Amino acid sequence: MKIIIGDAVFTAILNNNATVKAFKAKLPITLKMKELNGNEKYVELPENLPNNGVNPGTIQTGDIMLYGSNILVLFYKSFSTSYSYTRIGRIENSTGLSKALGAANVTITFEAD
Predict the structure, then answer these.
(1) What is the DSSP string of 33-57?
(2) Has this prediction a pTM greater than 0.85?
(3) pLDDT (tens digit, 9 = 90+) per residue, 16-43?
(4) What percent of the chain has pLDDT over 70?
(5) Angstrom distance (rounded) from CA 24 to CA 84
(6) Which of 37, 47, 35, 33 minimizes the C-alpha distance to 108?
(7) Burial code of 4-39, b = ≥16 C-beta within 10 A, e = fewer?
(8) Residue 39 near residue 75 (C-beta atoms within 8 A)
(9) What one-character DSSP code corresponds to residue 15?
(10) Which of 39, 54, 69, 74 to pair with 80, CA 20 to 30 A apart?
């Protein structure tokens, strides 16, 4: 999957699960994602996706997760977490991701490869 943030393009490696299949069916999609906690961008999706949340223990820079059944989250800093997420995938090379996302809300396009 391609993730486009302004002029920056990132490639994501996707997991093989029902959540990913449902999300891929919505591509391409452009979303206005909100800033949260200085480490993630998130958006409430208009429809629920299948989910199977587990606690990953540690979030890695570039992780793409689903919180609950309809909150898409793109993480741009690594940290420990007590929350549960359904893994969608992760950005293959997250160099420059934090800079591309910036500190404010941002528009991100997700496209099939």
Answers:
(1) EEEETTTEEEEE-SS------B--S
(2) yes
(3) 999 999 999 999 999 999 999 999 999 9
(4) 100
(5) 21
(6) 33
(7) bbeeeebebebeebebbebbeeeeeeebebebeeeb
(8) yes
(9) P
(10) 69
Tokens of 33: 């994602």
Contact 112, 87 (CB under 8 A): no
Q: pLDDT (tens digit, 9 = 90+) per residue, 56-108?
A: 999 999 999 999 999 999 999 999 999 999 999 999 999 999 999 999 999 99
3-state secondary structure of 13: strand
Residue with tokens 């909150």: 71
Instruction: Indicate if the pLDDT at residue 113 is higher than 90.
Output: no
